[in-house]
Design a protein that fits this description.
The chain is an alpha/beta fold and about 475 residues long. It is built from 14 helices and 22 strands. Its cofactor is FAD.
């Protein structure tokens, strides 16, 4: 029976990074994963993020943005392109190529770092002295390995909607939404979170009539509401997305003619029939098949594996990271937890601050933030100050033809320490990194205001917002 210092269950962005870091630290490491490629005929590492989540969705977003730009924006640049045609199947093919390249890249990294990759589902089978026995189930062919430490990184799965079953034909989850090979005339989306907004944006830009139904009365409740209101205005009034808030779903019927949704919104009973319906109402931790109950692994009332601040479970030398534990369900959070756990196993003392983890929504314009929102600061009774600056007067944004949006900086009124940075605009997924660095190093708004920012760049808007915190903006 093979023995390892570390066995990781799951090869998503948390698991594969944990395995690589453990191997770098000289620990004999194996990683168990049951993921398969789109065709279902070969293993595929990378988990949901790489195969049916973060990466493929960004590929589709970019393709749809190019198509929209060719139709609507090129003429402004003096470029005539004639009759622009869209090929959904080709867009999906490009996305699949990118996914295949990156999943193969993880396989290469495992080989390079001497991580043993085992195909199958991993589960805890009990202790043999100081070692954990872990079963690997490869489609019914079972084997046992032993490990001093086990890291559970099994991720999450889409939250089911009781009113309708996902068939990925007419009613789609994130995977089905990423594999449509024809543009639906009418597309419905249940949920206005990250997946709902991103997928709704993709298919709206290539020709679908998109209606998003959201149960919450507030749009993007987790975001700073000044940013959220700006986003709502752009998405609805300028881009034509129909977003209904405070929706109560009554009935969903899936038939050959389409998917009919009966619901209430704004005190009125409504009914819509869609060609396709995307269900994106969040995700739940994936602990199926771990043998958690028999092993004595504790979970909380929502199904998350209980861990302490260092990702230790109640079982000795069993750790858990990523979507399967508390905290934001973000790939980069999972990766950093994976690194931290590997280093703890090796005797190091790493630190991970959940307060400085950035959030991004890859719509157009993009939305990104880190730290506290203004609503949170008000609820805490915090004494704060703020500065804002828009992209409308930014030379780089105007040159790109993407001058919508703004940056908002929140700082402590007495110490000037940055408390939150919130953005909507072009490439703010990249700009937010400066805000993350500022929070991590406990910078003040004046620190960012005193740093020289290259001209002309989009980052000047963050610089200007930081100046505005002390009412000394130069361009506002």
């Amino acid at each position: 029976m093979s023995q390892f210092d570390v066995v990781v269950i799951g090869a998503g962005p948390g698991g594969y990074i944990a395995a690589i870091r453990a191997a770098q630290l000289g620990l004999k490491t194996a990683c168990i994963d049951a993921g398969v490629n789109k065709a279902g005929d070969a293993p595929a590492l990378g988990g949901t993020c790489l195969n049916v989540g973060c990466i493929p969705s960004k590929a589709l977003l970019q393709s749809s943005e190019h198509f929209h730009a060719a139709q609507h924006d090129f003429a402004e640049h003096g470029i005539t392109v004639g009759n622009v045609k869209f090929n959904a199947a080709k867009m999906i093919e490009r996305k699949d190529t990118i996914v295949t390249k990156l999943t193969g890249g993880i396989k290469f990294l495992f080989h390079k770092n001497k991580v043993e990759s085992l195909f199958g589902k991993g589960s805890l089978k009990g202790r043999n002295g100081d070692l954990w026995q872990v079963e690997v189930d490869n489609k019914g062919e079972k084997s046992l390995i032993e490990a001093k430490n086990v890291i559970i990184a099994t991720g999450s799965v889409p939250r089911p909607l009781p009113l309708v079953d996902i068939d990925n034909v007419n009613v789609l989850d994130n995977e089905g939404a990423l594999n449509l090979t024809a543009v639906p005339k009418k597309l419905g989306v249940i949920g206005s979170g990250v997946i709902g907004l991103e997928m709704g944006s993709v298919w709206k830009r290539v020709g679908s009539e998109v209606t998003i139904l959201e149960a919450m009365p507030t749009f993007l409740a987790a975001a700073d509401q000044q940013i959220a209101k700006e986003a709502f205005k752009i998405f609805t009034k300028e881009q034509g997305l129909v977003i209904e808030l405070g929706v109560k779903l009554n009935e969903i019927k899936n038939s050959k003619k389409g998917v009919t949704v009966a619901y209430e919104a704004g005190g009125q009973a409504k009914e819509e029939t869609f060609d396709k319906l995307i269900v994106s109402i969040g995700r739940i931790p994936n602990t199926e098949g771990l043998n958690a109950e028999a092993a004595g692994l504790e979970k909380d009332g929502r199904g998350f594996i209980k861990v302490d601040d260092e990702c230790r479970t109640n079982l000795p030398n069993v750790w858990a990271i990523g979507d399967v534990v508390r905290g934001p369900m973000l790939a980069h959070k999972a990766s950093d937890e994976g690194v931290a756990v590997a280093e703890r196993i090796a005797g190091q003392k790493p630190h991970l601050d959940f307060n400085t983890i950035p959030f991004v929504i890859y719509t157009d314009p993009e939305i990104a933030w880190v730290g506290k929102t203004e609503e949170q600061l008000k609820a805490e009774g915090a004494n704060y100050k703020k500065g804002t600056s828009g992209f409308a007067a930014n030379g780089r944004a105007l040159g790109l033809g993407k001058a919508k949006g703004m940056v908002k900086v929140l700082a402590d009124a007495e110490t000037d320490r940055i408390l939150g940075v919130h953005m909507i605009g072009p490439m703010v997924s990249e700009l937010v990194a400066e805000g993350v660095t500022g929070l991590e190093f406990k910078a003040s708004s004046e620190d960012i205001a005193r740093i020289v920012h290259a001209h002309p760049t989009l980052s000047e808007v963050l610089h200007e917002a930081s100046l505005a915190v002390d009412k000394r903006a130069l361009h506002g």
